[in-house]
Design a protein that fits this description.
By secondary structure, this protein is α/β, with parallel strands linked by helices. The protein contains 16 helices and 13 strands. Bound molecules: uridine-diphosphate-N-acetylglucosamine (UD1) and uridine-5'-diphosphate. It holds the Pfam family Epimerase_2.
Length: 381
């Protein structure tokens, strides 16, 4: 009898990173796929499902503007419990470190359903940063039956926490599967302004920001980006704004009236990856962008004090620069003006994956349930 695998996800990055897994589950003869979205994000989630052609079987619809983390968690527990009861899956797959993930993994564990954690073992080492993600991923690790670690670094983090090695598979990060698949399709820009920037050949500074622990410095980020737009007038600055009103209210006012700054709505994944490929410098606090941009050979400056993704920092393509206004301006300016420094960072590296993470993940899930064999671990060498 085929085993029934329920994938639960709620935000944009989870949707991007589980899409290759869902597609691989759908293609599997031994495993059936059930998809549940919590709706933690709304437009930003639906946008990704549409691009990957995924129609969720269940939607918990927990979205609300500016809701507290506790309100969100309790709605996920409540909504998911009923679905777990009615569907009775053989395993529940979660991805990453959002509050959807923490709630869904505990909910499955309480129902004694094995939890499969995609992107397991990332650790910054600081429980307060990223907040609340570092706690969310540790909570999920405690109740996980199968840890799908993207890299050997993340596997080693789990081993240090005494996780049984037999329960860990190193798969690569599924975001690289999603990225390769999307870039291959060569999806055109919808937005004429983006098309124009790409055609102009002007250098591009691509900026994204949303991290909760950075909310109190978001105005600083806005001011730094505005200064950069003035100091680098030959650059186009593109900022696809996160939907969070707290982020928008803080970041966007400083950018008003600047001719070389384009603020957009969240870009569809195909457009965003195309913009990354057309960019010169990426300035971000995003987790996923830290993994994707190095694969496209783009230098990434990360507005955070630490990272759970050290691999591309070690490879020299990603640099942690914190959130001080002067430092942000200085680091971007240096990349824009010092060609030797730029060349030293602009190396295409793929420490996070080879595009086969979903296949390894699904094989490991099959192995967990006794219907398949595992594939060899991902090795970036
Ligand atoms: C969430 C995750 C974070 C992840 C990020 C990816 C938690 C606690 N945070 O942060 O780990 O890195 O998603 O983007 O799980 N909003 C909309 N429409 C949308 C999405 C969001 O209007 O489609 C607005 C709402 O007002 C919402 C707010 O943004 O209340 C914040 O959304 P939320 O999911 O709570 O947190 P994020 O900051 O997006
Ligand atoms: N992304 C996108 N459109 C945008 C901005 C980002 O599709 O306008 C993608 C990006 O390529 C990456 C993911 O969204 O895969 C990152 O999401 P986010 O930064 O919101 O979350 P994080 O990765 O920090 O959890």
């Amino acid at each position: 009898m085929t085993k029934r695998i329920m994938t639960v996800y709620g935000t944009r990055p989870e949707a991007i990173k589980v899409a290759p897994v869902i597609k691989a589950l759908e293609a599997s003869a031994e495993l059936d796929s059930i998809t549940v979205v919590t709706g933690q994000h709304r437009e930003m989630l639906d946008q990704v499902n549409e691009i990957f052609g995924i129609t969720p079987d269940h939607d918990l619809n927990v979205f609300a503007h500016r809701q507290t983390l506790n309100a969100l968690m309790s709605k996920v527990f409540d909504g998911l419990d009923a679905v777990l009861e009615s569907e009775a899956p053989d395993a529940v797959v979660v991805q990453g470190d959002t509050s959807t993930v923490a709630a869904a993994s505990i909910a499955a564990f309480y129902r004694q359903i094995p939890v499969v954690h995609v992107e397991a073992g990332l650790r910054s080492g600081d429980i307060s940063s990223p907040f609340p993600e570092e706690a969310n991923r540790k909570i999920t690790s405690q109740v996980t039956a199968l840890h799908l670690a993207p890299t050997s670094t993340s596997r080693d983090n789990l081993l240090r926490e005494n996780v049984d090695p037999a329960t860990i598979a190193v798969t690569g990060n599924t975001v690289i599967d999603a990225l390769f698949h999307t870039v291959e399709q060569d999806i055109p820009f919808n937005d004429p302004a983006l098309k124009e920037i790409e055609a102009s050949g002007r250098p591009v500074l691509l900026v994204t920001t949303h991290r909760r622990e950075n909310w109190h410095v978001m105005e600083v980020v806005g001011r730094a980006v505005a200064r950069l737009a003035r100091e680098l007038p030959h650059y186009s600055v593109v900022l696809p704004a996160h939907r969070n009103p707290i982020v928008r209210d803080a970041v966007l006012p400083a950018l008003e009236g600047l001719e070389n700054v384009l603020v957009t709505e969240p870009l569809a994944y195909g457009e965003f990856t195309r913009m990354m490929a057309a960019s010169t410098i990426v300035l971000t606090d995003s987790g996923g962008v830290q993994e994707e941009a190095p694969s496209l050979g783009k230098p990434v400056l990360v507005m955070r004090e630490n990272t759970e993704r050290p691999e591309a920092v070690d490879a020299g393509t990603v640099k942690l620069i914190g959130t001080d206004e002067e430092r942000i301006v200085a680091e971007v300016s240096r990349l824009a003006t010092d060609s030797a420094h730029y060349a030293s960072m602009a190396n295409a590296v793929n420490p996070y994956g080879d595009g086969a993470a979903a296949a390894r993940s699904v094989a490991a899930i099959g192995h967990l349930l006794g219907v398949d064999d595992r594939l060899p671990d991902f090795d970036p060498r």
